[in-house]
Specification:
The complex is a heterodimer. Chain A is mainly alpha-helical. Chain A contains five helices and no strands. Chain A has one domain. By secondary structure, chain B is mainly α. The longest helix of chain B is centred in the N-terminal third of the chain and has 33 residues. Classes of the chains: A mainly alpha, B mainly alpha.
Chain lengths: 127, 70
């Protein structure tokens, strides 16, 4: 289980690095709407990542203990995406919808890149 | 009309996410039940699979909101 937790912390670290870059972009560039939208999407995607990690961990534990798990939280993640879209559409002077969607996809892109990096690292060790 | 379009978009997105996640979780539970010592590897694979499957329905939900508000 530590491996799973370590993976989550590593991915969170990457997302926080990206978030800090977006914040610098918001502070020091003229594209404030773009970077603020990215920040909104990325913050919500951090919640999605945490929710997914927790639910999958619970599911694995429940299978071993022969207990039931009702959901893996898909509806709550879709609702978080809807929340991000609602906020972006409610305040068009501050947020644009396309960067919000890009921000929402941040955690999923980080998951894929992290998986590929780990695979490449492990192949390098075995070779 | 916008409401119907948004409802169809969200419904199909949820259907896709539900079917995809159902298949992934079913196989993962089977794998963990067969070999509990492989739980970390199977959970990691499930994590990546669920992330890939849910990405497009999330975009579908956002598009349905955009359509609803037009």
């Amino acid at each position: 289980m530590e491996k799973f937790q370590q993976m989550f912390l590593r991915q969170l670290k990457y997302i926080l690095y990206l978030l800090s870059l977006y914040t610098l972009g918001w502070g020091f560039t003229a594209y404030k709407t773009f970077f603020l939208s990215l920040i909104l999407g990325t913050v919500i995607s951090i919640f999605m990542l945490w929710s997914l990690t927790r639910k999958i961990d619970k599911l694995g534990q429940a299978v071993l203990e022969r207990k039931k798990v009702r959901t893996i939280g898909t509806l709550s993640r879709l609702a978080l995406a809807a929340l991000a879209a609602a906020v972006a559409l409610e305040y068009p002077q501050y947020f644009a919808i396309v960067p919000v969607v890009l921000g929402l996809m941040t955690s999923y892109i980080v998951i894929i890149i992290d998986f590929l990096l780990q695979k490449w690292k492990n192949n390098g060790q075995h070779a | 009309m916008n409401l119907i379009a948004a409802a169809i978009a969200v419904g199909l997105a949820a259907l896709g996410a539900g079917i995809g996640n159902g298949l992934i979780v079913g196989r993962t539970v089977e794998g963990i039940a067969r070999q509990p010592e492989l739980r970390p590897v199977l959970q990691t694979t499930m994590f990546i699979g669920v992330a890939l499957v849910e990405a497009l329905p999330i975009i579908g939900v956002v598009i349905s909101f955009i359509v609803m508000n037009r």
